[in-house]
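Subgroup meeting minutes
Present: P.N., E.W., G.H.
Scribe: E.W.

1. P.N. recapped why we're keeping a running log of single-chain structure predictions: easier to compare across weeks, and new members can see raw inputs and outputs side by side.
2. G.H. added today's entry (263 aa).
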Amino acid sequence: MGQEKEVAVKVRNVSLAFGGVRALTDVSFDVRKGEILAIIGPNGAGKTSMLNCINGFYRPVSGSITYKDQELVGKNTYDIARLSVARVFQGIQTYGGMTTLENLMTGMHLKLNYGVLAAYFYFWSKAKKEEMEKRRKIEEIIDFLEIKHIRKSYVGELAYGLRKRVDFGRALAMEPDLLLLDEPMAGMNLEEKEDMTRFILDVHEEKKTTMVLVEHDMGVVMDIADHIVVLDFGKKIADGTPEEISRDPLVIAAYLGEEEKVR
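Output recorded in log:
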């Protein structure tokens, strides 16, 4: 057996409630460095809520989430993003009145290190060199995602699948070490799903980016995930490899809507 990978994200006993409604109950799991971990489960299982806890949109009522030796619970979303955490949301979060290039440029904002003084003396400072380097990386993303033909197009006028691709590109522009993907293929046709799957796998292979994926397409999940966590009614019912999960009787029961009658 190979050496076990380092743990990148530790989720411990996370519970989340909205009033009297429990969205998550005592959920724990590890995301290992460089892996694709998928969180799956029926509608309303708490998958998106878990992502929202990781990147600071929701604050758990109890539990701990650590990343890069820092506690994420209690941090705001901006500070978590500065730890090289990027998010692709379930709904498209692009700026429709801006071009593809401009949308991707917004993703690199947190990576610019120059201050006010450097910006003031922009044309003869290292700020210009830094931004030129970032622009070069943006062009690499445009080539990688095969969207050169829409680089100057307004995103609001693009077809749905291309808008999702731009949204993914903006997340990549943040140069994340941890990428949270909330149903990146929702609403796509088969060809668009195949393209997005290829892009995700290529990023994972080339950049070794750690990813947490929420996705309803079980064919995609079983093909690309290294590790799967299964939630049902806010509780973790299974945790393992795709092969282990596919044989787990509790997972089968949850997806078939049966009573928990399997030991």
